[in-house]
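[User]
Um, tokens okay?
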Amino acid sequence: MKTTLEQWQTFKTVIDEGSFAKAAEVLNKSQSSVSYIIARLQEQLPVPPLVQKGRKAELTEAGKLLYRHASDLLAQAEQLEETAGHLAKGWEAEVSIAADALVPINRVFCGLQAFSSFCPNTRIRIIETTLSGTDEALLTKQADIALSGRVPPGFLAKPLTDVTMLPVAGAQHPLAKLDIVREQDLKQHRQIVVRDSGTKRSQDAGWLEAEQRWTVSWFSTSIEALKSGLGFAFVPHHRAQPYLENGELCALPLEGGGTRRIPLYLIVAAQSYAGPAVKAVAERLLAAFNAEHKV
């Protein structure tokens, strides 16, 4: 005869509480019922998990191993019941998020960690996008949620934060040696731009038309190019900051000021029909970005 979850639950409770009497109280069973369940478990196993010493039941060496496995088994059973309950309420099995390259991803992970603590069994899929690629993910329903620097027509959005774009070059680049950098100075050097990840690729993450341009797919690649002295670029401050602090990169002193602030938004693809998991993820992402502003 196979053992049952009830037997393992009773076994674990007896160990946790230290006696049959206390386990009976916790389980809302009679002590004789608890004793019977444990006796049946002992009979069904090839080695005894418990030995009786006076009024106290103690684990054998085999019992210690079985206790650990029983704890894992019961935890999995509890998660299974919780997942089934969520699905029965229309809880989605997966939530997909299109995150534009401008987004501070550490804040996203803070929000997702909070969601995971609440609902660990819902899968999260992050689609890393740039510019119109984020729009496409929404319009083609690849993403349930988008974190973007622009709001496509027909969608509602909630503000997250502002991202500051800086003109940056390697510390040894000729532009870094100038006291004032003018637009004509920039145009004499290579610009590193991040390509649009959309299929039409109609935009790029640069707004100066330098003659010399190298195009890459990610800001991380752009920064490596800058550190190697290959050109200049406009990059999010939060991505450049570690390298500005250690001296590998230098913010260029553009004439008239060179920074540009881009607002970021959270957009739920199907606002009126969003399921509970999508709503829960959106709430925790908003909370994570709001917490950043309060620091």
Summary: The longest strand covers residues 157-170.
